[in-house]
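Input:
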Amino acid sequence: MHHGGHGPFSTTDAVIDPTTSNVAVAGPASGSVAINSLRVGGSNNSSPTLTLGAAAFNVTGAVNVVSNGTLNATAGALVAPTLNVSGAGAATLGNASGNVTTANVSGGLLTVGAGTVGTVNLSGLGSLAAVRPCPRSTSLEARRPSRATPPS
Amino acid sequence: MSQVNVIGGTPSFSGNATKLTVTAGSLNIGAGAAVGAATLNGGTLSATAGHELAVSGVLTIGPRMRRAR
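Output:
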């Protein structure tokens, strides 16, 4: 990781592969870390975990959490256009400054405790858990059928 | 969570979202699932005992019909 003077930290693609044990990236207490893409892998025999520290982690490309990989972005804010969770991957977003435009969950679990997620596409065996305040009221309003054919 | 789309498979959903759209697949409703509006254009919803989907706004089932002239 390289510190570019007064600008944000910069780095290339970050890959946490099955051979890597748990990794915690603290980052600066304030400021941001720029990453091209991020991948937290895993395998049947390995479950690497990446924990983001207190900083804004700005990923310009995709964040992929695959197989048994785990991503914890609760202390730090994950800002990314795309977050893909598949296999038995697990991603937890819990920082109010986090912002993911699109999350695709085809397997595993995405937990959103805080922050902004624009669109979540669920498929396969993917699970989504979102912890937010509940709507106040509950009502059901069904659409009326078309009146194209009047009753005889 | 602004928008949750269910596009296939048998995913699960719990928690809150502004809008839920199911176009394919079978969505399993988990604990505390609540949305502002839901649209079911395809697929199915299923819920385990004790779990329900709370819709605080409009629930739309099926494709939107055009008004006859």
